[in-house]
Amino acid sequence: MRIFFPRTWRLFDHQEHKVIIVGLDNAGKTTILYQFSMNEVVHTSPIIGSNVEEIVINNTHFLMWDIGGQESFRSSWNTYYTNTELIIVVDKELYKTLAHEDLRKAGLLSFVNKRDVKECMTSGNLPWHIQACCALTGKGLCQRLEWAMSRL
Ligand SMILES: Nc1nc2c(ncn2[C@@H]2O[C@H](COP(=O)(O)OP(=O)(O)OP(=O)(O)O)[C@@H](O)[C@H]2O)c(=O)[nH]1
Ligand SMILES: [Mg+2]
Fold first, then answer.
1. What ipTM was reported for this prediction?
2. For the chain, which domains are there?
3. 116: annotated binding-site residue?
4. Mean pLDDT, to the nearest integer, of 18-46?
5. Which of 3, 57, 98, 147 is buried most, with the most CB atoms less than 10 Å from its CB?
């Protein structure tokens, strides 16, 4: 995995940044967690509960929580939200739906919808980006973490 973040001011950034990884079951969250922490693919089993790893990248410390995506556990996700600085949403359904020959040349624009509904998050308070990745190779994972870190 490529190591980045050359900014010198980060050399002394020992604050721990809380990250949560959410998404439906089987999306690849645990695989991504261990790509970040061990730079390798581990054998995973579906989890009801969570895994947490402390990860240091270029002297920036992350406490990365991988939260089980099984339906029965989703109502517990909110117990992990306190002090979260970065949310990683892993979505395999989107990929599956769009992996079609007819869409090979299409662009992709994603809307965070229902901004008129009060309880919904808005793009105003939640900066976000879409990044294609492969958790088995680690490709794509680092680029977007770099983008996210610049906003911490
Ligand atoms: N082909 C492919 N398989 C992947 C990728 N990422 C994960 N997988 C596989 O998808 C399966 C599920 O991955 P997990 O990381 O356990 O999924 P999860 O999101 O943690 O699932 P829950 O713990 O049930 O919420 C495993 O067999 C992984 O090897 C990927 O980028 N490509
Ligand atoms: Mg898992």
1. 0.99
2. 8-149 (3.40.50.300)
3. yes
4. 93
5. 57
